[in-house]
């Protein structure tokens, strides 16, 4: 979508190339009727957390696996930190992959190895000498809160601890980019919160770029700076999380957003609203406040100024990162011109005023 023309973090980073640049990626699995990826292009700026969200089968796994070329796209290019991965030979690709860590939904730990040995595993594969491996593991253990568990085996760990091992292992070769494939989907809500906090903390401390896929908007809301919505292999919407959450454009995005910020108004509530008086109109408005306007004053003042009735059908105050916002569903009753006038007046105050979309009703 055009509102996402460029990522600000990338601009702030000056001449640094994007952490990830995908151009026109397409992929169709043999025998499949539809492509898993259909002309996907997106850029992730250095240091940002970028979420890709979509329903099951939307193409998320295929997309994230294309970033380190675990999956080869049929067409299009993949660039990571300025290196064109799709142009590398196998040796070049192996080296480039050391700059890319990956965290998996089901942890993928080796059950016969201890925590420390699991973390050291990628370094072993890369031929890093034993002493250097040990030093690196000792750095990583406290970073993920597992200093006391270095000699434990995966079977002795909770899900959250297993994922901490998975994260430490992904960070072993000090990558600049971390790919997270549904990293919290196998965890309970409390552990999910802990792991998301850990990822947020590591991102800042290690200056990481994180690209994650998830089917949970709550993950996006908590951790991401920007988000792309994938549907049937295509990016249908992308933008800053705040913008996408407060003003989703595509119907699918609206449904996703409604799951976490609950702007939906039950049909029964709407059905119970009184009909307008003769000669009057009733309009259902969705009003978005982004922190500056005082809700009650706006509603009562609009009512007074325009001689209309504003019935608050639902309301919510929330925040994304440290940016607060409020969303009100209003039923406005009055003369058609007066209702329109009130909506225009509210827009003039900087509020986002639209019709309550069908999906929300
Ligand atoms: N190895 C494969 N062979 C054939 N078809 C595949 C393969 N992997 C994925 N697909 C198909 O490609 C499409 C996208 O799948 P993908 O796993 O990328 O979606 P997803 O959004 O990650 O879904 P989920 O959340 O269920 O993992 C689906 O139609 C899927 O059936």
TrEMBL record:
CDD domains recorded: ABC_MetN_methionine_transporter (cd03258)
Keywords: Amino-acid transport, ATP-binding, Cell membrane, Membrane, Nucleotide-binding, Translocase, Transport
SMART domains: AAA, NIL
Source taxon at top rank: Bacteria
GO molecular function: ATP binding
Pfam families according to UniProt: ABC_tran (PF00005), NIL (PF09383)
Residue ranges occupied by any ABC transporter domain in the UniProt entry: 20-257
The protein, known as: Methionine ABC transporter ATP-binding protein
Organism: Plastoroseomonas hellenica
